[in-house]
Design goal:
alpha/beta; Rossmann fold; 2 domains; 7-stranded mixed beta sheet; 5-stranded mixed beta sheet; elongated
Amino acid sequence: MIRLIIILTIISVMALIQKHYYRRHWYKNLKFDISYGAAGVFEGETVSFSETIYNNKGLSIPYINASYSQSEYLSQLDTAGNPTYYGRNRDTFFAAKHHQQIVRKSEVLCEKRGYYTIKGATLSATDLLLTSRFYKEVPIHAAITVYPREIEIDEDAIPYKLLLGDVLTKRFVLPDPFEFIGVREHQPFDNLRQINFGAWAKTGQPMSNILGHTVSQEVRIILNLSRYTDYKREGVYENALRLTAFLARKYIESGIPVNFATNGIDSITNNFGRIEKGNGKRQLEKILEVLARIDIPLSQKGLNTSHIKTFLPNFTELNDGCSVALVSSYADEIIYKWNDIAVARGVKVFWVAPCLDWEKSEYHDCVYPWEVDDA
């Protein structure tokens, strides 16, 4: 009997010792991280997703649970492509031996445009005998930008090439070979004299010089997200962002500098989205990033004077070398008047209004209605 008491006492003491030891040391040299396989993807695409636990010490941990929140619009998929979680809460379990790194990889389906972050996780672990549980909050710096879904629009639906032809015509008539601006990817329409062989040798792909012009050539894309009806119309606004991305891509691929502004609020800067004039692949990425982060003001109806001044170009900024692509479902007499004055001053304005089928007849002749679904 005494022997049994001694054995039980020794076991109890050892259990207390290991419990105390685990409580003090379980989190030392234990790291947990989350990462996405790309900084940005398009709506509807998948991206790789990694959860990594690294136990860099001589103490094994039999049970670790990593708990964190991830947007419901990012669906983790199993090997068969089926969602593994529903809702925002995520839990991943590990059993980490001493000096072991474990990486769990999966695919994430990005269902909706947006900017998504994971800023922290809660780690919980047990001692060797699974009698106690310990917790620790850890910072995480994982982010992914989901761009508006790529779309292709037929010229018959909206004649977006009106601006393309207008700008390119001026380009070939009025180039200034003495004003060098920079280099960009070579385009099929570039003159052979524009090829920059030094940049070609450095980058491994054909590059062309960007020459200035005697007329300021650019397309200003203006995205007006003011609410135009008493109904939410979320699908209409999402298609407006997709249309904006499409126009930016088409003009930039044609070598045309693009300036972008919107009265939509950037969820990171909390300011109106704006990208100064630029060209090339990086310029398109900047515009896509802003479009991804925009919060659509579905609770706001109409415009006031301050809104118009923030996103419509001032007439002193416009000249006969400037072209404007206005994406706006909202229309009132102030915008119609701005359009008339701009056109009278020689500015080429292409105004397209994403809308439902029965709303198309409500716009004036200067507007190109674009029928979309409200879904």
